Amino acid sequence: MNKKQTLLEAIAPVQRGLKVTENQKKEILSAVAYLEELNPNPSPLEVPELLLGDWRLLFTSSKELLGLDRLPILRTTDIYQCIRAGKIYNVAEFAGLPFLEGLVSVCASFTPVSRQRVNVKFERSVLGLQRVLNYKNVGEFVKTLESNIKLMAVDFPITSTNQKGWLETTYLDENLRIGRGNEGSLFILAKS
């Protein structure tokens, strides 16, 4: 079995990181480190045809993202990171009570600072009901966000001047991306 398959099998039962034991975490981190050493694209910002697109989160160690699943009555169904030229759109879909499916999105711009790393500046947050937003899928929703139309949702700019976020892509191929964030978080994503 190849190391990529080993990683995918290791993260499959842990529900994006919500139900991970210490032994599972060690196995995942070991598989990640091995793949990072074999990164077929060590300069991911130079291969936009691979980097750009809609990525579904398979695993994270981010307490902030894992905390989304601790909301009462709601459960996260999918989390996406959509990368466009100079922009990142994070979208989390929620299910719960019938007809009250929701989503939360954070939009950011990014500036490359190395071959692997971008500085991230958060600019907008949207929280709303999927039905009210006429949400069909993440790709269509990102097109709506790109249009800068004010949505029928809690839709507000993020204006903090103290942002120091960054994201580093440490492994990238046609359908798998591994990244690390400024708070020590690990992200494993599959191309949608």
Features:
about 190 residues; alpha+beta; Lipocalin; eight-stranded antiparallel beta barrel; 5 helices; 9 strands; about 20% helix
Oligomerization state of this entry? single chain
Q: Work out the strand percent.
A: 35-45%
Fraction of helical residues: 10-25%
Q: How many discrete structural domains?
A: 1
Here the CATH topology equals: Lipocalin
Radius of gyration from CA coordinates: 17 Å
Order of strands in the sheet with most strands: 1-2-3-4-5-7-8-9
Write down the CATH class: Mainly Beta
Low-confidence stretches: none
Number of helices: 5
Q: Strand-and-helix sequence, N→C?
A: HHHEHEEEEHEEEE
Count every beta strand, where a strand is a DSSP E run of 2 or more residues: 9
Q: Decide which structural class fits the backbone.
A: alpha+beta
**What is the overall pLDDT average?**
93
Largest sheet, strands/sense/barrel: 8 strands, antiparallel, barrel
Cα(first) to Cα(last) distance is: 23 Å
Task: Identify the overall geometry.
Answer: globular
In the CATH hierarchy, what is the architecture at level 2? Beta Barrel
Fold and architecture overview:
- This protein is an alpha+beta fold and 192 residues long.
- It has one domain (41-191): Lipocalin.
- The protein has five helices and nine strands; from the N terminus they run αααβαββββαββββ.
- It has helices spanning 3-11, 22-37, 48-51, 63-67, 138-146, and strands spanning 53-60, 75-84, 87-95, 102-112, 117-129, 154-157, 165-172, 176-181, 186-191.
- The protein has an eight-stranded antiparallel beta barrel.
- α1 (3-11) packs antiparallel against α2 (22-37).
- The protein is globular, with a radius of gyration of 17 Å.
- The mean pLDDT is 93.
